[in-house]
Specification:
Layout: H1 3-8, E1 14-21, E2 24-33, E3 36-45, E4 52-58, H2 68-81, E5 84-88, H3 103-113, H4 115-135, E6 139-148, H5 151-163, E7 167-173, H6 190-198, E8 204-209, H7 217-226, E9 232-237, H8 246-259
Parallel strand pairs: 4-5, 4-6, 6-7, 7-8, 8-9
Antiparallel strand pairs: 1-2, 2-3, 3-5
Helix pairs in contact: 4-5
Length: 264
């Protein structure tokens, strides 16, 4: 039924656990780089055998590649739109560490390594992952989208710059040029964030939680302001950082599907 999948698997990725749930293929993998192993998961519908657009899903802080929102979005895209989706663990998250770290501990580790070094490394990890999946014939390397809130936006900005015109659209939010007092000072890199934002040209949907206590609203609006995209939309919702209205999730999905429209 899905023998074509195994025929396409290449040595660039070490494919691990395989699942088929309600018509969605879920395959975990490792991509090996000189800087370490990149753990990830790929989702795609089992009903097609040609490369399709790929959605990069960035998880938030203290999350991982199988966080509930990531899995729900990936499965929705595969089921309702015939699109592929992929997620990888962020620095000091998921399978990159032996045990889960508190926010204070993973922020301290990132700050110690140097936030800009980690931003560059994460962008390279995403590039290596996308290239390996594309080499396996499972995704259209020139038809990419990125969706990530909070830490997902922090790392998504340099990813978008690195991917260039391969990125067709971006969904960012819950992140800005300012950060609250609870976050490690070494995580701040407003000049770098603004520089990356100015270089982005793909259409952007930017989500703001109006009462965000971690990334103040003014800093989020300032980040939206400097985005270089000619086509950028701002969606604001009442609530704190952790809150997400279901209508917002639907808006994210619709935005991506519209820009990655494919023939049925």
């Amino acid at each position: 039924m899905i023998g074509w999948l195994d025929d396409l698997m290449q040595a660039a990725i070490e494919w691990l656990e395989y699942r088929l749930i309600d018509g969605v293929v879920e395959r975990s993998f490792h991509v090996t780089r000189t800087t370490g192993t990149v753990p990830g998961v790929l989702w795609l519908p089992s009903s097609w055998s040609t490369p399709r657009p790929l959605i990069l899903l960035g998880h938030g802080g203290s999350g991982h590649k199988r966080s509930s929102r990531v899995v729900e979005l990936a499965r929705w895209f595969a089921t309702h739109s015939g699109l592929a989706a992929v997620a990888i663990d962020g620095p000091c998250h998921g399978d990159r560490v032996s045990t889960p770290l508190s926010a204070a501990k993973y922020q301290a580790r990132i700050a110690e390594a140097g936030i800009e070094v980690v931003l560059d490394r994460m962008a390279e990890d995403w590039q290596a992952t996308v290239d390996a999946i594309a080499a396996s014939g499972l995704a259209a390397v020139d038809r990419l989208a990125y969706l990530g809130m909070s830490m997902g936006t922090r790392f998504g900005l340099p990813v978008a710059v690195a991917m260039g015109d391969r990125i067709r659209c971006l969904v960012f939010g819950k992140f800005g040029l300012q950060q609250g007092a609870t976050m490690h000072q070494g995580m701040a890199a407003p000049e770098r964030v603004a520089s990356d934002a100015r270089r982005i040209t793909a259409p952007v949907l930017f989500h703001v939680q109006w009462h965000d206590e971690i990334f103040p609203r003014d800093g989020q609006l300032a980040l939206f302001d400097v985005l270089g995209s000619k086509d950028k939309q701002l969606a604001g919702y009442v609530g704190t950082h952790a809150e997400t209205d279901p209508t917002a999730t639907a808006l994210w999905r619709d935005f991506i599907c519209r820009h990655l429209a494919i023939a049925s």
